[in-house]
Amino acid sequence: MSNNNSGPAKCPVDHTSASSKPAPPQAPHGAQCPVDHGQALPSFAQNLPKSSSECPVDHNTVNPLNMMPDLPQTMHSSQAETLSTDRELSSIPRATDDDTVWEYPSPQQFYNALARKDMAAPEQYMDIMVDIHNFLNEGAWNEVLKWESRHKDQCVAPKLLRLQGRPRDLSPMARFTSWMHGVKPFDRHDWYVDRCGKQVRYVIDYYEGVPENDMPVFNLVVRPAVDDFESLTDRCRALWQDAKEKYFGPGSSQ
């Protein structure tokens, strides 16, 4: 896997794009994903109205006590079925004084987030939709850790300080890719990582890849934002390493 791409992550959900649409660059490794996070609902719910492709959880407004979005655990007025209020713990450490990790929204909170944005919220699939949300976040953090491993001499245990959803803001890389391939990401997050006292911003673009064996594919393009010389150096080194592996093979020292 290259240092600035994770994926393709395979998901057994029908949300393929038109066959004539060019795809963004593919990354070599993948992982199974349980649900749709693209532009269409699962094939078994294709008669339901389509939802927006962006993440429904508003990461711009967070509770300063736990650095998580304030999402109610109460039933929504449009809701007919009772949903779980249990929240799953992530593997992502929070940048606080205690040794805690970030919590993912419960199915009830996820439903409320969808309803607040007037997005389709099929109650019977809410558990699965939460699974995909969590799956993509775990994948993104794993990619962040690969970048951060370059700085183990500075910090052996980076933590996530906060995150920001920016679905309508194209990053410079995404804009360039859209010019080249005609494909835009369906979502974007900016993650702010605490590197033992230094704040480092990461940009994550979420793409739908080329389906494989009729299975949808996701690509996460994760890289440090070029906010300082150190991050620029990391990006240049990653490009050089990718070029060496492309022309001389994995692990090449040439």
TrEMBL record:
Entry keyword set: Lyase
Enzyme class: lyase
EC number, as in UniProt: 4.4.1.17
Protein name: Holocytochrome c synthase
High-level lineage: Eukaryota, Fungi, Fungi incertae sedis, Zoopagomycota, Kickxellomycotina
